[in-house]
Design brief:
Elements (H helix, E strand, L loop, with lengths): L1 H12 L5 H6 L4 H28 L4 H18 L7 E2 L5 H32 L11 H18 L1 H5 L10 H10 L6 H19 L6 H15 L7 H5 L16 H33 L5 H14 L9 E2 L1 H9 L6 H16 L1 H4 L4 H15 L4 H8 L1 H16 L2 H22 L8 H7 L13 E5 L13 H4 L8 E5 L8 H16 L3 E5 L3 H9 L2 H5 L4 E2 L2 H15 L5
Parallel strand pairs: 3-4, 4-5, 5-6
Antiparallel strand pairs: 1-2
Helix pairs in contact: 3-4, 3-10, 3-14, 3-15, 3-17, 4-13, 4-15, 5-12, 5-13, 6-17, 6-19, 6-20, 9-10, 9-17, 10-17, 12-13, 12-14, 18-19, 19-20
């Protein structure tokens, strides 16, 4: 009886247990060695990124290291993703810099603490999945905008411009920097360009070498060896203190709570979006499924703890997560080791970090800004529809020229109106005629022979943002699917850019496992949108069939082509 009760309790707790619990149950020395190598690698990669994000946010460089160490440790222990690495990211730079400029460091700590509580609330109540209702044009718009703003904040250090206080707004910043163009330092600029070139070469030709580490080592060694007159962490910030900070509660100023709540909500939403996006990337790379609610609880706890040690907001970091997995990470232990590497650096090597030139960190952030921009999605959104273009453009413009909080709110309002508009268009009234019956014959599957080796799925209703996660019905059984998968879209009444992206991801997942994807029966609006977005070219015109009859004929061709000779 007691055993049955214990088993029942364990069963109820399973959906709320972190990934580390499942990973450590079957842990061994071979897995540890893989995690150790990955953790050491990503720890070194995280060092310059953490400092650069902190400096760009208006904080001291060590604040970024404290954040990366706390978030990496806590999310590794309590998060819901198998190989994700968390820490400060570019998504927070704009909003954090704004909070620091307006409310000071104490205001930032309060905001981060509140955002952590909101994230915990989202996870505990199961509302973590609500972030799927943020459409692709909004996410792309503020990602592009953040990238532009980050790049603009690095121009002073990249070119070594002699300017005093740089304005916080984009237009004011660019005006001041333009007037200071005559003070450019050619030594600083050459060093920054050399580091940027090193990262580009690593990305293109030496993919196993982390570009940030290469730039950090090359830039710092060259600056020291040639005694270049460039600003360093020590010259501007007085170096990085050795040791760990003592925890302390941020002063909870009640007069700031109302003013900080909108920013805290923005930080929480950004943290949730980026964490879950990064977790999805991690899932694709390691073949796992993250737990979104547990992940948000882990991220929330990390953001509650981070300000206690003088840290910034933290979230899942896509670039560091990808580096972690490519370096061989198998479990959350790699994230914990990455945090321990940063702690060791703080304890024994902090003075060395003071020699890092700010131009090197500026070059690294320039590369980060380019990588995070999702620039390849802009042409797809631009081809989709005027409404999607408007949502993207408003979100992008407000992110750059106004405020990230305003940008997300405006983008979501436009997207909601767009959603209502598209759903209402799916309602139609039409007369049933003999021609209608004749046209429908080729779409009907009843009575047709479905050959062995073919699976058919259908999508019913509007396939818009908020509903695209339902393709998991296919991807969850990917390993058991036959060689050819037909996705029937006859009953899909509408689609948007988020839905098209989901179908592209589905096709890529099928192709990655050697399977063939055929899409058929598109109605007028979905077919028009998918063609404009280039979806037909992506899957191949021969796999973009007008009806089920043509799709089955195409499936038969594929099976015959792949049939072994002589069979």
């Amino acid at each position: 009886m007691a055993k049955a009760t214990a088993d029942s309790v364990h069963e109820r707790l399973l959906p709320w247990l972190p990934k580390s619990y499942f990973a450590l149950r079957k842990y061994n020395s071979k897995t540890f060695l893989s995690d150790l190598i990955a953790g050491l690698t990503v720890g070194l990669v995280a060092l310059p990124l953490a400092m650069a994000f902190a400096i760009s946010s208006g904080m001291s460089p060590q604040a970024g290291i404290y954040t990366a160490a706390a978030a990496g440790l806590i999310c590794g222990l309590l998060g819901g993703s198998m190989a994700q690495v968390s820490g400060p990211t570019g998504a927070f730079v704009v909003v954090v810099a704004g909070i620091v400029a307006k409310h000071g460091v104490d205001g930032l700590f309060i905001c981060t603490f509140l955002a952590g509580l909101i994230l915990i609330g989202l996870g505990v109540t199961g509302l973590g999945t609500a972030v799927k209702f943020i459409p692709r044009p909004v996410v792309t718009g503020f990602t592009n905008g953040i990238a532009v703003v980050i790049a603009s904040t690095q121009l002073r250090d990249f070119f070594g411009l002699s300017v005093g206080k740089v304005p916080g707004d984009f237009a004011g910043r660019m005006s001041v920097l333009a007037h200071a163009i005559g003070t450019i330092s050619w030594q600083t600029t050459t060093l920054a360009l050399a580091c940027l070139t090193a990262m580009i070469l690593c990305r293109k030709w030496f993919t196993k070498v982390p570009g940030a580490i290469a730039a950090l080592l090359i830039g710092t060694v060259v600056a020291l060896a040639l005694k270049l007159p460039v600003e360093t962490i020590t010259s501007r910030f007085g170096g990085i203190p050795t040791g760990l900070p003592s925890p302390h509660l941020p002063p909870m100023r009640l007069d700031l709570l109302g003013a900080l709540l909108p920013s805290a909500i923005t930080v929480a939403m950004l943290g949730a979006i980026e964490s879950l996006m990064s977790a999805v990337v991690s899932d694709h790379m390691v073949g796992d499924h993250h737990n979104p609610n547990v992940e948000l609880i882990g991220q929330g706890i990390a953001n509650v703890v981070s300000p206690l040690f003088g840290g910034l907001p933290a979230t899942g970091a896509i670039a560091r997560t990808a580096t972690n997995i490519r370096s061989g990470a198998k479990t959350p232990v790699a994230s914990i080791i990455h945090a321990l590497v940063l702690i060791v650096i703080l304890l024994v090597a902090a003075p060395l970090a003071g020699h890092i030139p700010l131009a090197v960190l500026a070059a690294i952030l320039m590369m980060v800004a380019y990588n995070m921009g999702d620039w390849q999605e802009i042409p797809q959104i631009w081809r989709a529809s005027r409404a999607d273009r408007a949502v993207w453009l408003v979100t992008f413009a407000l992110t750059v020229f106004a405020d990230l909080t305003v940008a997300v709110q405006a983008g979501m309002m436009l997207a909601a109106l767009l959603y209502i508009s598209r759903v209402t268009r799916t309602t139609s009234v039409m007369q049933i005629t003999p021609e209608y019956f004749e046209e429908g014959k080729d779409h009907v599957l009843i009575g047709r022979h479905i050959p062995e080796g073919v699976a058919i799925f259908k999508i019913q209703g509007p396939f818009l943002f908020g509903s695209t996660d339902k393709v998991k019905e296919v991807t969850d059984q990917l390993a058991d699917l036959p060689p050819v998968v037909i996705v029937r879209l006859r009953n899909m009444t509408a689609i948007d850019t988020t839905g098209i992206q989901a179908l592209e991801d589905l096709a890529e997942s099928l192709h990655a496992t050697g399977r063939h994807a055929i899409f058929c029966g598109m109605q007028l609006q979905p077919g028009h949108m998918m063609r404009r977005a280039g979806f037909a070219e992506m899957v191949g015109e021969e796999n973009f069939c007008p009806n089920a009859h043509e799709a089955l004929l195409r499936a038969g061709e594929i099976l015959r082509e792949e049939m072994p000779a002589g069979v």
